[in-house]
Amino acid sequence: MSNHAHAHEHGPILTPWPLVISIGILAMIPLAFIFKFSYHNSFAAILSLGIGAPLCIIGVIGWVREAIGGDELSQGLGFGAMGWFILAEALIFLPGFATYWVLRLSAESWPPPGSVDMPQLMPVIMTVVLVSSSLTIHKAEGLLEAGDVAGFRKWLAATMLLGLSFLLMSIYEWNHLFHLGFTIDVNVFSSSFFSLTGLHGSHVFVGLGIFLAIMIPAMSGKINHTFVRTGSLYWHFVDIIWFFVVSQLYFW
Fold first, then answer.
1. Residue 51: HSE in the Cβ half-sphere, 13 Å Cα cutoff
2. b/e string for 159-168 if b means 16 or more Cβ within 10 A?
3. Alpha-carbon distance 174 to 76, whole Å?
4. Range of the domain at 207
5. Would you say 143 and 158 are in contact if contact means Cβ atoms under 8 Å apart?
6. Quick check: 8 pLDDT over 50?
7. Which of 23, 86, 143, 176 could in theory staple to 151 by disulfide, Cβ–Cβ 3.0 to 4.6 A?
């Protein structure tokens, strides 16, 4: 019997990679920020980034290599853990939205001076693309459950293409706004706009990374069903958050 089978008999598989990633994030973000802006020590900030970034990369690679191990690892805790992770991510978005709501509702006039007319067509197209990507990953899951691996790969690829298209449209829109002189430091609206859309875009990027980690082994028929369900759940969360972003920043 394999080591994985023994692990399943006695409980969940223990992995060091979440701890490695957590230490990397600690060094890369809060410590580097503190060294740079509180202690004004650029060398310590760069050193902290130099330690944190590799730890994050190594941790992600190690964790993904475990996660894509195939069906023998399919009974892990990933799906339930993703629910808690999504809750934590929602609480990260909440202060950004709350700050925007306070600024918006307490302002004597809106939008503030320096703002530009926000695009109307592009966010609608982006919404259609992102909603479509949720439908395609759901279709991919269904085909996988039915045993159609080739169909799963095809619809997963379609999901990744839609997600990439969404990111490219976001970049195009940002570039358009920059050319109009609307940058993050123009006023409180621009600060909220670029912070929230940028935060959401980073989550789309992470989702594409998850799908890539699924697709690579799937090309050789190696698929972890729990990993697929977990990645799909995360993608649906990214889709739902976009509805808040687009409704509040573009059409309110």
1. 14
2. bbebbbbbbe
3. 40
4. 78-249
5. no
6. no
7. 143
Q: For the domain that residue 134 is a member of, what is the CATH number?
A: 1.20.120.80
With b for 16 or more beta-carbon neighbours within 10 A and e for fewer, the 114-133 pattern comes to ebeebeeeebeebbebbebb
The number of C-alpha atoms within 13 Å of 153 and in the hemisphere containing its C-beta is 11
Within-domain flag for 73: no
Residues 92, 49, single domain; the answer is no
Range of weakest confidence among 92-101, 190-199, 215-224, 237-246: 215-224
Length of the chain: 252
In Å, how far are 9, 101, 166, 197, 243 from 203, measured between CA atoms? 35, 22, 12, 10, 14
What DSSP element (H or E) covers 191? Answer: helix 188-218
Whether the per-residue pLDDT at 6 is higher than 70: the answer is: no
As a whole number, mean pLDDT of residues 109-120 equals 92
Tokens of residue 154, six digits: 């095809």
Spell out where the chain has E strands. Answer: none
Query: Whose structure tokens read 């007319």?
Result: 117
Residue 127 reports pLDDT greater than 80: yes
Residue after which a domain boundary falls, among 43, 67, 91: 67
pTM for the whole structure: 0.78
At residue 13, the pLDDT reads 56
Question: Which amino acid would we find at residue 142?
Answer: G
Percent share of the chain, pLDDT over 70: 90
CA dist 243 and 252 (Å) reads: 12
**Per-residue model confidence (pLDDT) at position 1:** 41
What are 184's two structure tokens? Answer: 């993050």
Q: Report yes or no: 160 and 213 within 8 Å, Cβ to Cβ.
A: no
| Helices first, then strands: H and E counts in the chain | 9, 0
Q: What are phi and psi of 79, to 5 degrees?
A: -65, -45
